[in-house]
Amino acid sequence: MSLLLISAVVLLVAYLTINWCKDQQKTPLPPGPPFLECLQITWRMLRKNDTHLIAEDLRKRYGEIFNIRLFSSNLVFLNSSRIMRKLSVSGQYRNVTNDRPWTFYGHFICYGCRNVSLRNYNEMLMKVRKMVHGTIKLYGDGIKVFDDMVNGEIQILQKELENSKLKASFDLCKALKVSLIRVIHIFLTNERPKDSEECNYICDTVEEFDDVDNEMFNSVLLNTCPWVRFLPGRGRRLYKAALEGRDKLNNLYLNSSIKERLKGHGKGFIGKILSEAEYANEMEDEDIKGIVGEMVTAGYLTTKGALSGFFLLILYYPEIQRRIQEEIDDNIGSDREPSLDDRGIMHYTNAAILECLRFISHVPVGIPHVTREEIEVEGMRIPAKTAMVTNYWSAHRSDKYWDKPDVFLPERFLDDDGKLLPSEHILRSQLIPFGIGKRNCVGESFAKSRMFLYVTSLLQRFNFSPGENKLPPSDSKLWMPNSTMMPAFLNCVVAKR
């Protein structure tokens, strides 16, 4: 037995030595911490899930590309918009760097990655993205019926805020949550909730699904150790809750009677996507479920994170709130509701929204890309089947590209005349909260337009102040690390202007 053990050890050492010697003859891998530190880093990510903060520390040591290597496995981090664009957009690399890795969430919750964001980069993905993007355009911005419904929802929120004016503490996060879920429901079905009972059920179902998904989506623990779903503890609880939330959401939006009603009238995103899928005859029921679930998660969580972060910041920076209100008074007035047509004249407001997206980076890291084959970039080798993490947090907080990156400063996006910098400006190109290229968020314009309408409509009519309430930290690095980060609470005083 001892002889067999010694032989096995010798063979293992020989194998590792031969592979190490081969690696030394190749172009070097990206730099990164030594083996023992990589073990410590992996253990911390398993426990805390604060990948973006770990990556920010390592970026300062190793630069725009670094590698966490455990044995023969590599995890490469891309830490600037420049290198992300180069690897995911440029013709030299884009066809071999836009696949997705295996993830627990995609495999077990999304029916084997049957949504948009987790599919591999192929012809089917392009067809699905085109279908989804076209449907969003048909039932989103610029469509009068939808815009009127959304404005109606904002007016309902305004009435709730007006009724809260005598309260010393108003939960703005909760009010935004209900309003945004109602908007998502309208987008999906082109219908408002019939009554308060239905509205409460919709809100509970969507929030239950999204809260679990937000924690699970980039869970290092579940992605690394999927078998923990069988063991008592947090992993198993998350897995069971995600399945229950997913099935409850499907029953809300995709039971047979609702599908027939929405498809028959081509109503909303769901009705249109069902009709498109039936016409193209290329999508199965699980594809529809995966796509609708993603629209709910992405449409609600990211907008809620951005909006709650924005209103937290203006509680900390009342002078910025006043400047936005002055711009609203000068350009829109108080006699009409803001509209998307006003975006072109609201320079400071747009700058504040962009700066909020940079400063909070509420989606701190993107879904990893996977290399289809070995590539070389800037003198470094990235092996085939390597996961590459797009680190938006570091891209938005690097002092190489941003002056005073840890300061909330809307003026950075304005020129000397107070006009918003054009989208092609080098500074605007560094801002990538919705991703880049073929893997960017299909709902980017939808999310940004909702944010503009909520900000202008609420600040047109109300002042927000902390009063005697304790506020969460303004710096999102102190928020709970999740796939989408947001303040834990947002209690404030609301006063009618």
Automatic annotation (TrEMBL):
<dbReference type="GO" id="GO:0005506">
    <property type="term" value="F:iron ion binding"/>
</dbReference>
<dbReference type="InterPro" id="IPR001128">
    <property type="entry name" value="Cyt_P450"/>
</dbReference>
<dbReference type="InterPro" id="IPR017972">
    <property type="entry name" value="Cyt_P450_CS"/>
</dbReference>
<protein>
    <recommendedName>
        <fullName>Cytochrome P450</fullName>
    </recommendedName>
</protein>
<feature type="binding site" description="axial binding residue">
    <location>
        <position position="441"/>
    </location>
    <ligand>
        <name>heme</name>
    </ligand>
</feature>
<dbReference type="GO" id="GO:0042448">
    <property type="term" value="P:progesterone metabolic process"/>
</dbReference>
<keyword id="KW-0503">Monooxygenase</keyword>
<keyword id="KW-0560">Oxidoreductase</keyword>
<dbReference type="InterPro" id="IPR002401">
    <property type="entry name" value="Cyt_P450_E_grp-I"/>
</dbReference>
<dbReference type="InterPro" id="IPR036396">
    <property type="entry name" value="Cyt_P450_sf"/>
</dbReference>
<dbReference type="GO" id="GO:0042446">
    <property type="term" value="P:hormone biosynthetic process"/>
</dbReference>
<feature type="signal peptide">
    <location>
        <begin position="1"/>
        <end position="21"/>
    </location>
</feature>
<dbReference type="GO" id="GO:0004508">
    <property type="term" value="F:steroid 17-alpha-monooxygenase activity"/>
</dbReference>
<dbReference type="GO" id="GO:0020037">
    <property type="term" value="F:heme binding"/>
</dbReference>
<comment type="similarity">
    <text>Belongs to the cytochrome P450 family.</text>
</comment>
<keyword id="KW-0479">Metal-binding</keyword>
<keyword id="KW-0408">Iron</keyword>
<keyword id="KW-0732">Signal</keyword>
<keyword id="KW-0349">Heme</keyword>
<dbReference type="Pfam" id="PF00067">
    <property type="entry name" value="p450"/>
</dbReference>
